[in-house]
Amino acid sequence: MEILQLLGHGLVLALQPINIALIIAGVTVGLFIGAMPGLGSVNGVAILLPITFLVPPDSAIIFLAAIYYGAMYGGAISSITLGIPGASTAVATTFDGRPLALKGRASLALVSAAIASFVGGTVSIILFTAFAPPLAHVALNFGPPEIFALMLLAFATFVGLGGDDIPKTILSICLGLVFAAVGFDQISGAPRLVFFDISGFLHGINFLVLAIGVYGIGEMLWTIDTTRGKITTTEAKISVAGVVADTKEYAREGWRGTTIGSFLGFFVGMLPAAGATPGSLMSYGVAKMLGKDPSSYGKGNPDGVAAPESANNSASTGAMLPMLTLGIPGSPTTAILLGGMVIWGLTPGPRLFADQPEFVWGLIGSFYVSNFFALIINLSFIPLFIWMLRMPFTILAPLIFVLSIVGGYAATNDMHDVWLMLIFGLGAFFLRKFDYPLAPAVLAIVLGPIAEPTLRQSLLLSSGDPMIFFSRPIAAVTMVCAIILILLPLFKMIYDRSRGKSAKTGNV
Amino acid sequence: MTKVMSNFAKLAGAAAIGVMGLFGTASAQDWQPTKPVDFVIMAGAGGGADQIARFLQSVSEKLDLTNRPLVPNNKGGGSGAEALIALNGASDPDHSILVTLNSFFTTPLRQQNLNIDINTFTPVAMMGVDPFVLWVHKDSGITTFEQWVEAVKAADGEYVMGGTGTGQEDSLVIGYLANELGLKIKYIPYAGGGEVAKELAGKQVMATVNNPAEARGFYQSGDVIPLVAFAAERLETFPDVPTMTELGHDFAYNNQRAVVGAPGMSEEAAAYYQNLFKTIYDSEEWQSYMTSESLAPMWLSPEEQKAYWAEQIERHKQLLSEIEG
Question: Domain B36-130+254-324 carries which CATH code?
C-alpha cells in the first residue's frame, strides 16, 4: 500500500499544470523527432537537454521522459507510411507496417502501432511501479553466459519457425554478423575488417545505416521496379468508422504480439547493454514464431506491427530501471538522461529510491501521464499521416530518397555512411530479387555486437569450456530452448519425410 | 510530410533561438567557436570518463560559458583508438577537443600502426586525477588486502577479475599486483567501468579495480567493499581504506581527467579552450564534484601538461612491459 501512496504523490506532481504542459510539449516534439528518419529519442533528448536547466529537476526529467516516449510512438510513423525506419527502435515495425500500407491498410497499421504502444507502455509502467527494486537484482544476475544465451534465442526465433527459406535466412544472418564485426574488437582492442583501410569503417557499421539502406533505398528501388514507373497512388482512406473498425481488427489480430511485446520488451530493455531496439526485434521474432500463421508475417500482419511497437515502448520504461537503480544506462538515450541527472544534483544508483522518493515517484507518475497523452496526440495525427500517403509515388520516391540520405548522415555525421547506405540499398534490392529475407541481417547487426563479446567473455570465464552455458540455471534453460528452436525445422523435415513415406506406402 | 517538416523546422528554430538567448555574450575574446564544438569522449557511454565529460559539458551549459554548444561524441572503440584517429584527422582542429583518460598514453604505445604521436596534440586542461581502488563483493567475506591475496592464491589461477580491457588502466594495476605478489588472475574485459562495477555487484566477477565514482553506488548500498587505494595518500571519501604504500608496496596509479585539443589547433583557439576549462575548473560545481567523486585536484599549465605527458609515456612503457613482457 505504501507504493500506491507514493505513486499517488507522484501522479499529483506529474499533474501540476507546468508538468502537464511539459508532457504535452515533450510528447509532441518527440513524436516528430521519432518520425524523422535518422533522428531518434537519443538525438531529441540530447538536443533538448540544455533547455531543461530552465525548470526544476523534477519537471526537467519529466519533459525528457515525455520526449523519449513520444519518439517511441513516432518512430512507427515513417516506418509505416514511407517504409523508412523512423528510429532504430522502429526498424521491426517496417517489416509488416510497410506491406500493410501498400495494401491500403495504413490506418490499420497506424492504429495498431498507437494502441500497442499504449498497452506496452502501460504494462511496463505497472511492472516498473510494482517491482522496480527487486527487478534490478534480477538484472544483476544476468552475466555474459545468460546474455549470450538470450541472444542465441533471439536468432533462433528467426531461424526456427521463420516460414522463410532456412539456408537463405542463415546466410542473411551471417551477412549481418560480418557487418557487425567491422570496427574494433572489444576484447583485444585491435581494429578488424577495416576494408581498404577506409577510416570510416573504424567506427563500425551503424545498424541504422544498414536499416535505412535496406528499407528506405531498397524499398524505393523495389517499388519502382515492380510498378515499372507507372504512377501509383496508395489507397488510403480514413474515417471515424474506419478507425473503430481498425481498432476491432487490431484487438482480434494483434493481441498476441502486444502481449509478447509488452512483457518481453520490458524484460530485454531492463538488461543493461540491450535496450529497446533488440527488445523490439526479439518480440517480433517471438510473435512470428508463436503466431497462427508465421508465413503471413512480413507480408502485412497487424500482429507484426503490434509486437515491436508494444515492445519498444515497454523497453523504454525497462531501460529506465537499470539507469535509476544501478546507475547504468540500459540504452543510449538513458545514458544521456543519466548525464542530465548528475548535473541536476541527483545521483542514480541503488540509493536513489530511498534518498529521492519525490523525484523517482514524480518520474513514474509522469510515465503514466505521458503515455496517455502520447496515445491521444498520436491518434489525432493519423489523418495527417494518411494524407501524406495519398501523394503520388512520383513525389514520394524523391522524398524517400532525400529522407534516407538525411537519415543516413544524421546517424553518425559521416558522409562515408551515406555512401555505405546507398550500397546497402542496392545490395538489398538484388538480394530481395532472389528472395533473400533481409530482416535477419538487420537483427544480426543489432544483436551481433552484444552476442560476440558475451560469448567470448563467457569462454574466458570458463577457460574455453562451453559447458558454462549449461551449468548456470538461467543460461541453461535459455540455451536449451534456443537449440530446440534451431533444430525444429530439422525435426519437422524428418517428420514430414516419414509421414510422406507412410502416406505413399499407404497408397500402394 | 511538408507540414511535418515545417513544424519540425519551427520547433528547431524556436529551440535554436532559446539556446542563443541562453548563451548571450561570453567574455570579450578574439577567437570564439563559429559552430558547435565536437567534444569527443575517449570512452563508451556510462563509464567514469563519460560521466565526467558530460558533467563538464553541463557546467559549461549551466554557466553559459560558450557561444556554441559542446556536443558530446562517444568514441570508445579500440581502447580509445577511434577517438585518437578522429582527432588526429580532424577536418576542423579548432572545433575538436577530446576528453582523455590514460589510454591517451597507452593506446598509441600499444598500437604503433595507428601512427599517432600524442605530442602533436594541443594541451588544453588537466582537470584532476582519479585514483583506483580494489573492490570485492561483501559476500566474499574478504575485508582486508591480506585476505584477498590469500584468496587469490588459494584459487590457483581461477580467480576472476573484471576490467575494461587489456592495456587499460585497471589492467595495468592488476598486472602490477600479479607481478608484485606473484598472483595468477583471470582477467575478463567488459565495455566500460560502469559495466565492470555492475558485474561485481552481480557476482559475475570476484574483484575489480574501479574508480571510486564508478563503484560508489554499490558501495553505498553495501554490495561492494573497498580493500586498498592505489593512491599516494588516503582518500578523503574513504578515510578507513589503507593505501598500497601503507601496506608496504610503493605504488600509486591515477587516471588522468584531462582535455586536449586536436593537432594543428590554432593558438587563439587553444587559448580560448584553456580559458574555458580554467573557468570550469574554478567553478563551484566542478570543485564540489571533485570532492564528491573522490577526484584529486590537479591543475597544470599547458607547459606542465606537456611535461606530464612525457613522464606518463615513460611510466606506461614500463607498466605495459609488465603485463605484456
Answer: 3.40.190.150
